[in-house]
Amino acid sequence: MPARCPAALQNLDLRPWSEQLQQHTFAGSVFLGCELDTESTGIIAASGGIIIPNLNEFHFRLHRSRLYSPEEIFAGFDPSDPNGYRKTFDYRVYLQYVQQGKRGTRINVSLARALHDHSITDALDELVKGRKVVAVMGGHAMERGEPCYTKLAMIARTLTREHFLVATGGGPGAMEAAHLGAFFATREDSELLAAIDILKVRPAGGEPEKEYADADWLHRAMKVREQFPVPEGELRRCTSVGVPTWFYGHEPPAPFSTHIAKYFANSIREDGLLEIARHGIVFAPGSAGTTQEIFQDAAQNHYGTVGVVSPMILFGVDHWTNVRPVWPLLTAVSTGKPYGDLIALTDDSGRVLELLRKYDPRKHVV
């Protein structure tokens, strides 16, 4: 019996359906990371189907049907172990990534990573479909005790409450602050501030601007997650998505994001994150990476490559005019362009929210 049309099946255990599978042909169909018995495998291949299995030599699955959860990424974490993060799935994948070479010159390595990243992009597209995505960019060096960390958490919490989907580069610092705010979307100010009080207590001798390297950085976050879990049935109201990369795997991913789209290829991750943020981006203080993201987003707006132009809000007047004087150049390149009216520089959290609330992408199609 021929299949009605080619199909793509991903990350499914099809062994219980062996008898039914053997009654069809599968020309043009693709089976990615599916569990199949020998008989079904033979029939699918003989009838023109394509089977790409997972490979046991890698710690990660090549084909995923959904994004990572924090529970998956941090599986193996031991809160009683000072080196608890180094026992996690995330860190094991990072070590293998480094050992096999970040460029992945062996074809089986580069192909495995590419297939993994393809499945992540597919799952990310499913998550953001129909959602108003606002990205928060900023430096990993921002410490949990800085006033801007709290401001970003408050902004992200308000956006999440108003049905925006907050996305970040998925790392520590400013990015973690945004996920923390979304995670606390159903809780009171006092609870969010109490969580920050737990998070910001650093061990003696902690290196400035490298809080993520503290041995207990993840331990403090897990303590907050345990003390203030997302209320049952409220996960969607606290949803946020982090988009980190193993390219910067020495930094742990943000533990308060509910969905983690972790990539091997940093270039795909960077461009994709900026592309999904069609309702605007808030650029908090950061260094070279955040500066790059500003002009990468400006290029997307400048040439209208995603079909709409969207707000670019630089949050931190002194930082973006003196420490990193990006603002003068951004205003110069955007003058006379459709996105020129959508750029802003401010220290005011209320102004950030006002600009994002009033933006209507239907009026900025290019």
Descriptive terms for the model:
14 helices; Rossmann fold; about 375 residues; 2 domains; seven-stranded parallel beta sheet
Give an overview in words.
The chain is of the alpha/beta class and 366 residues long. The protein has two domains: 8-52, no CATH class; 132-363, Rossmann fold, CATH 3.40.50.450. The protein is 41% helix and 10% strand. It contains 14 helices and ten strands. It has helices at 18-21, 38-46, 70-73, 89-99, 107-128, 147-161, 174-183, 189-199, 217-227, 266-276, 288-303, 317-323, 327-334, 349-358, and strands at residues 8-10, 30-32, 50-52, 132-137, 164-168, 240-242, 259-260, 281-283, 312-315, 343-346. The protein has a seven-stranded parallel beta sheet, with helices on both faces. A three-stranded parallel beta sheet has the order 1-2-3, with helices on one face. Helix 1 links the parallel strand 1 and strand 2. Helix 6 packs across helix 7 (174-183). It is globular and about 65 Å long. It starts with 7 loop residues before the first strand and ends in an 8-residue tail after the last helix.
Major sheet: size, sense and barrel closure? 7 strands, parallel
Question: What coarse outline follows from CA principal-axis ratios?
Answer: globular
Computed CA radius of gyration, to the nearest angstrom: 22 Å
**CATH topology grouping of the largest domain:** Rossmann fold
Content of β-strand: 5-15%
- Just name the CATH architecture of the largest domain: 3-Layer(aba) Sandwich
Give the CATH level 1 class of the largest domain. Alpha Beta
Estimate nothing, just give the exact number of structural domains.
Answer: 2
Structural class comes to alpha/beta
Unreliable stretches: none
Quote the distance from N terminus to C terminus: 48 Å
What's the number of extended β-strand segments? 10
Tell me the series of helices and strands, N- to C-terminal. EHEHEHHHEHEHHHEEHEHEHHEH
Q: What portion of residues is helical?
A: 40-55%
